[in-house]
Amino acid sequence: MRLTRAAVLARAKAAALDGVRRLNCCANFLLFVSLPAQISICRDLPNVEVITFSVNGISDLEPLNQCQNLSELYLRKNNITSLNELFYLKHLPRLRVLWLSENPCCGSDPHRYRMTVLRNLPSLQKLDNQVVTEEELSQALVDGEEITAPPARRSVENSCRESTGSSAAESTTETASELLSFSLEETNKIREELGMKPVPRDKFSSFSPRETDCNRKKRNNVLNAILLLMKELDTEGLEIVQQTVGRRLQACRKKELQEE
C-alpha cells in the first residue's frame, strides 16, 4: 500500500494530518512500495509523536526531519543501508526512543553501530529497546563516528530509471520472501512494540507436521497481520470479528466431523 493522506488518516483515526499524534504502519504495510517517496507524507505530520514503521522496505529517512515533535521512532528490520541516514534525525529535539536494529546499516560491529548512533543522537533514552547510560554517551564521543552530511543517494530517480523495473521487482520479491518467515521472536517483537503480551511458544508452534514450509510461513504471516489489525478495531469491530470467528469455527468443526 502507498502511504497516502487517506491511509494515514484512517490508520491514525484523525480528521486532519496536523492532528495525527501516533502512526502505526508496522509489518508489511509498505511492502510493495519500493521508492523513497513511500513515507514522503511524513513531511506533512508536524505534530506526530510516535511512528512505527518496523518490518517494511524503508530506505530513506529524509521525510522524517520535518517531524519536530517526534519522540518515539520504530524502524526495526527495514532496508536502511547507511548510518548517514541519522543525519535526518539529528535535529529532532524530542526524539527519545529509537529502534533501528536489524537494518543493513547496523553492520557486523554492534559496538561501533551503537556508539555512532549515540554520538549523533545523544538525547536518546532508549536505543533498540535498551536503556542508554551516561557511560555509553561518554564512550560514544570516543568510539562513535560523527555524521555531518546526508547519505549519497544512488541515482535511482535519475540515471537508472530504465533499469528499475526488473531490479524493483527482484527487490520486492526478496523482501516479500523474507517477511513471510516470521519467527516466534519476530512476532513477539511486533507485539511488544504494540504494547501487547507475548505469544507463548506452545501457542505459536501449533502447526501440523503435515504442513509444508510454504503453508506454515503463509499461515504465520496471516496470523501476524490479523494480530496487528486487531489493535485498530473498536468495540463494534471486535464484536463483528468475534461473530465471524465463531461462525468460522463452527463450520470447521462441522467439516472435521463429516471427514471422520
From TrEMBL:
The cellular component terms of Gene Ontology attached to this UniProt record, alphabetical and capped at eight, are: ciliary basal body; photoreceptor cell cilium; U4/U6 x U5 tri-snRNP complex
Per UniProt, which keywords does this protein have?
Answer: Leucine-rich repeat, Repeat
Extract the ranges annotated as region (Disordered). 151-175
Pfam families xref list: HIND (PF19252), LRR_4 (PF12799)
Keyword DNA repair set for record: no
Query: SUPFAM superfamilies in the record, alphabetically?
Result: L domain-like
Q: How does it assemble?
A: Found in a complex with CFAP410, NEK1 and SPATA7. Interacts with NEK1.
Name of the featured protein: Cilia- and flagella-associated protein 410
